[in-house]
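A quick aside before the break. I want you to see a complete sequence-to-structure record at least once, exactly as it would be stored in a machine-readable document. Don't worry about memorizing anything.
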Amino acid sequence: MKKRILVFLMAGMFIVSSMTGCGAGNSEPDDYVTNDGYEVASDDTAQTKVDPSKSISKEDIKVGVLYISDPAEGSGYSYTHDLGILGMQSNLGLTDDQIERKIVDDSDTAATKTAIEECISDGCNVIFTTSWGYMETTAEVAEEYPEVYFSHGTGYMSNGKNFNNYFGRIYQPRYLSGIVAGMNTKSNKIGYVAAMDTSNSEVTGGIDAFAIGVASVNPDAKIYVAVTNSWFDPEKEEAATKKLLDMGCDVMSQHCDTPYPMTLAQEHGVYGIGYNSDMSKEVPKACLCSVIWNWSAYYTAAVNDVIEGTWSGDNYYGGMAEGLVGITDLASFCAEGTQEKVTAASEAILNGSNNVFDGELKTNTGEVIGSEGETLDDATITSGIDWYYENVVVVE
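That is the input. The structure line, written in tokens, reads:
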């Protein structure tokens, strides 16, 4: 898979001009839980990979995609995934009628199953479900339709056959964006709108990586986190943003679907750090940088594997080195020295001397996570972070 991703990412760069990279890897966390209740080891010895069917010709491919919101609304999560789908479509030369999109609340399991089954009835033989809440339903339906390829974004479940999981080391650019925030706050109050609380490692790990980045350049700053308990809720995201701004936060960050933390930051004359896609196009006076995904790298390779008959069922987990994640160029109005700090940290991540979650990490409740000379493994980062770093304050 890795070689094909390299080719297609380069071919698809014109689709997402702000997202750069030289390929995407398919290494995975040490332990991925499958929907059969056992673990798939990183050396692939725990179970035999099964090709669920023979190759499917490009003309017969039909891709179904589930989104939690309309990609046309804003520059958030679903918008960025759809950029990846469009990139895949262009790279592989698929027609519009070979893509079927569904917008479904990922907390509604019945609606999720109905949407997936509608895609199958309409002839979809590859289905991407892009949000955490779709995971268990996708796992169940995959067992019912072994001839269909299912791929779930975020989460951790897979069966090593016709159902895999894809995600990336988003904590790497989160750390870099924390450096940007720490260098550019004047109040030492940084706001963060979070979709979920510490029960969700994806969100919490991102917050912690951001907080570690802030602390590396500004030990006096605090990160104030407001949780919406929803992957997509415009009203709650707007209210959470306003609360943080009213507290005096002068840099806003986010893990939520709408761009409210950014748009309201600009309205208040303070800074913001975008997420998912480059949000400077919407808030050019506020956007210090954005943490971005290049999903086309994965989508192109996954569908091409089906076409070529080389689908393995392996989970996918790429990072900065593979071009799946990164940050945009910094705004010209960033504080002096910001670029130098980010450049040095980027090089350290890429050469392996900084893995973000290194050594002893102090939580905001006084506990110590990790050990000197060690780093948290990817399995822990993806599914075992249920604590906040020491400079994080939860806003009720």
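Two observations worth writing down. DSSP finds eleven helices and 17 strands in the chain. Residues 201-217 form the longest helix (17 residues). We'll return to this after the break.
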